[in-house]
Amino acid sequence: MRQVGIFGKRKSGKSALMYALTHHKIMNETKYRALEISGVGKIMLVDTVGVDAEPAFAEKSAESVEVALMLISNDSFELELSWLSKLKKSGAAIIIVITQVDKLDDGGKSLAAAVKEVSGLDTVCVSTKTNTGIEELSNKIISLLSAERM
Ligand SMILES: Nc1nc2c(ncn2[C@@H]2O[C@H](COP(=O)(O)OP(=O)(O)OP(=O)(O)O)[C@@H](O)[C@H]2O)c(=O)[nH]1
Ligand SMILES: [Mg+2]
């Protein structure tokens, strides 16, 4: 099945984002959620261990994803940047996601700009607490998956 991977450090908000994207809150920890997207088909959203927790496991997950979300929740993001080249090598399309932006005074704007400047990649600011940016992110994922299939 086509896979979308959620990468980021411990406590960056990976699991919360997976639940928000699938509109499905569950109490126990699940590592995968399958969902059907109209026009795209069945995809699997894959929650991963922190890139700072078990890099080898996270790298294994990186090999099989078509789209990779790289989560960044604060301004120490060197490790996340170093992961971008690994993800590119595996052929994944990457979306950088600034998470927990309800905690940031400017809604993540300056962090997003800083990350964009060094990575050259587009970023989406999200909060699962206020539901900010979830729809925008869903749309970006869908358009990447649609483009890749053509
Ligand atoms: N304020 C706020 N808190 C959030 C948000 N997303 C996640 N959190 C909180 O941040 C903590 C970590 O969120 P998780 O989703 O468990 O993060 P994770 O990356 O899956 O963490 P691990 O699986 O332990 O690596 C939890 O206490 C969440 O409630 C958000 O958008 N806003
Ligand atoms: Mg988690």
Descriptive report:
With 150 residues, this protein is α/β, with parallel strands linked by helices. It has a single domain (2-149), classed as P-loop containing nucleotide triphosphate hydrolases (Rossmann fold, 3-Layer(aba) Sandwich). Helices cover 38% and strands 23% of the residues. It has five helices and six strands, in the order βαββαβαβαβα. A six-stranded mixed beta sheet has the order 2-3-1-4-5-6, sandwiched between helices. Strand 5, helix 4 (109-119) and strand 6 form a beta-alpha-beta unit. The relative contact order is 0.19. Magnesium ion binds at residues 14-15, 47.
Molecular shape:
globular
Helical proportion, percent range: 25-40%
Query: What's the helix count?
Result: 5
Order of helices and strands: EHEEHEHEHEH
Helix-strand makeup class: alpha/beta
Which molecules are bound in this entry? guanosine-5'-triphosphate, magnesium ion
Spatial ordering of strands, largest sheet: 2-3-1-4-5-6
CATH C-level category? Alpha Beta
Query: What is the average per-residue confidence, as pLDDT, rounded to a whole number?
Result: 90
Q: What characterizes the major β-sheet?
A: 6 strands, mixed
First-residue to last-residue Cα separation: 17 Å
Give the number of DSSP strands.
6
Under the CATH scheme, which architecture would be assigned?
Answer: 3-Layer(aba) Sandwich
How many individual domains?
1
Uncertain spans, ≥5 residues at pLDDT below 50?
Answer: none
Percentage beta strand: 15-25%
* CATH H-level homologous superfamily name: P-loop containing nucleotide triphosphate hydrolases
